[in-house]
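Methods — Computational structure assignment.
A single polypeptide chain was analysed. Its primary sequence is given first, followed by the predicted tertiary structure written as structure tokens.
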Amino acid sequence: MRGTVTDWARRTQRIQVGDTVAYSKSFLQSTGQYTGDVPHARGKVTALVPVGKDLTLAEIAWDKPDLPARVNVKNLTTKKGIALGE
């Protein structure tokens, strides 16, 4: 049985609900955040909110206080990326 386009998009999406995430190295460097809570924060994605054709926000339950509840998925990396320093 063939899958739908929605199934394919969900399987190939970089960030998925349930993933452990952190801000990506490239995002942190571009914003000059090398110390403090943000580079060390880890969170669990609780939902994905498509906002437009090229923009999806991840709702995140962070382990640090005062971080934004929604973050552009392009600014995040997964557990694998965290381990690789991405």
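Note: Residues 21 and 78 are 5 Å apart (CA to CA).
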